[in-house]
């Protein structure tokens, strides 16, 4: 939030006061535990960094955009197809 914005929208003093009041009142821990990234497959995912040249990465991004899916999902779909796992 270096530019005073969250998701491109300005942060107002009113929003800050609201967040502070919520924090001071306390949070429902059980509700917070349900947040986060959903599991992938049978459990939590593992980050696997890979290197791609610009041509391959551009082709991947173009295909993902055509399919209306995120880059990460396109990579998982390609790996599933290659190893023939659903």
Concise structural overview:
By secondary structure, this protein is mainly α. 52% of the residues lie in helices and 5% in strands. A two-stranded antiparallel sheet has the order 1-2.
Describe this structure as you would to a colleague.
With 86 residues, the protein is mainly alpha-helical. It has one domain (5-36, 50-83). Helices cover 52% and strands 5% of the residues. The chain has helices spanning 13-25, 29-33, 54-67, 71-83, and strands spanning 5-6, 9-10. A two-stranded antiparallel sheet has the order 1-2. A hairpin with a 2-residue loop joins strand 1 and strand 2 (9-10). Helix 3 (54-67) packs across helix 4 (71-83). The radius of gyration is 20 Å and the shape is flat. The chain starts with a strand and ends with a helix. The mean pLDDT is 86.
Amino-to-carboxy terminus distance:
39 Å
Number of domains: 1
- The helix count comes to 4
Mean pLDDT: 86
Structural class: mainly alpha
- Tell me the radius of gyration: 20 Å
The best one-word shape is flat
- Summarize the main sheet: 2 strands, antiparallel
Query: Could you state the order of secondary-structure elements as H and E?
Result: EEHHHH
Poorly predicted regions are: none
Strand content range? under 5%
In the sheet with the most strands, the strands line up as: 1-2
Task: State the total count of DSSP E strands.
Answer: 2
Please give the share of residues in helix. Answer: 40-55%
Which helices and strands appear, and what pairs or packs with what?
Blueprint: E1 5-6, E2 9-10, H1 13-25, H2 29-33, H3 54-67, H4 71-83
Antiparallel strand pairs: 1-2
